C-alpha cells in the first residue's frame, strides 16, 4: 500500500451534488425539482422508480433535500476544509431550477447565477478547480407537469438553452464539465434520474428509451455548445459503472453478464462513439420499441462526442440465469446483483470489491480509448462520535486505501485516468435512501435522518489520511 505513482497533474478531490448538499430549496427564486419531492422512508424507492403520488411536497412527509447540509449558506466554511485537505478539484452540480426556475423562463434567474459565481470564485480563491455537472438528477417540476419531462423533445431545446447560459456565464471559471450524472440510472430509478412518471399501463421501456434518446441528443448539443463557447474546456459524460461478473462459467451466465454490462454501456457508446451500437438496435427490434428520431440526430450524435468518460464506482455486480441462484440477491444495491461469495458487503448491502474497480477501469479504457475521470467512489457507513468528539472511521480509510491502490494498478496497466473525486467528502443526504445516517464524508455533519442537529462540521480520522494521500500524490496510502 505504498510507493504508487500517479501523474504529477493528477486531479485529487471530492464530489457532491446540489440536491444532496445545498438545501435552500426554494430560496432566491429557485424552482421546485423532482428531487425535492423525494421523502425519507419506505415510499422513497417507489417514487424514485416513477410512481409519484404528488408533484407538490406533502405536509406529513420529511424531504431531506429541502435543507440538506445547508451548503448554500455554508460553502465557504466547507471549501476551507476541502482546501485544508489539499483538494485540486471539487465536483459540484448546478441546480437547473436555480437558473431557470420553471425550466422555460424567458430570462435566467440572476440570484441563481450569482450563487454559482460566488461558489466558483471561492473555489478558485482556494486553488480548487470546479468540475461541474449540468444535470445531477435535477428536473424542474414545471417541465414534468407540462411535458412529461424527458419524454418530450421539448426538453432537448430547453436543456440546450440552459447549457448555453451557464457556459457563457462561467466560461472563464470552469474548464471541466459533464452533461448528465449517471445517465444509465434512467433505466433503474427513472423519476430520480429523469423526472419520468408512470401512471398509465403501457410500455415502460418505450418511454425510458425515448427519454434516453432525448438526453443523448441534449448531451451532444451541450458538447457542441461547450466546445464553441469554451474552446479550452473539456466536457465528458458520466456512467454509474461496475462490471457484471457471470455467477458461473456457464455460457448462458457469461452472455447474460455481457448483456447486463451493455445495458449501461449503451449510453456511453452513443456519447463516446457517436452512434447507436448494433446490439441496441437489435434490442429495440426485439422489444418492439419505436424510438422517434429527428433527421438531424444522427449527425448531431456523430459530430459531438465527449472528451472524457466520467464514472462512479462503488461495487461490482454478479448475475446468473439460474432461477434458484437469483433468489439470493444482495439488498440495497440499485443494480440487482446475486450475492458474490468471494466478497464482503457494506452495511447497506453493497459488495466491496476493490479489484473490480481496476477491472472496470480497464474495461472502460479498452472500450473507449478516452481519458477516464473517477468522479465518485466511497463507502456509506454509520459513523459514531466518541465522548471526546472524534470519529475514528478506519473502515472508510481501509475501503478507500484499497480502491485507490487498485486505481494506481489500473494506471500502471496503461489506463489513462486524469483524476479522482471521492463521493461525499463531507456528509450529505444519501440519494438512494434519503438518510444522513449513511455517511461517506471525511467531514462529519451533525444532522440525523429526521433533519435534527446543529449542522456542525467535525473532521474525521479519514480527513487527515486523505490530506496525506493528496500531499504525497497517492504515494502514501
TrEMBL record:
InterPro entries: GH (IPR017853), GH_1_N_CS (IPR033132), Glyco_hydro_1 (IPR001360), Glyco_hydro_1_AS (IPR018120). It comes from the Bacteria. GO terms for biological process: carbohydrate catabolic process. GO terms for molecular function: beta-glucosidase activity. Pfam families: Glyco_hydro_1. Keywords: Glycosidase, Hydrolase. The active site is at residue 376. GO terms for cellular component: cytosol. Belongs to the glycosyl hydrolase 1 family. NCBIfam families: PRK09589.1 (NF007154), PRK09593.1 (NF007158), PRK09852.1 (NF007356). This is 6-phospho-beta-glucosidase. It comes from Tepidibacillus decaturensis. The lineage of its organism: Bacteria, Bacillati, Bacillota, Bacilli, Bacillales.
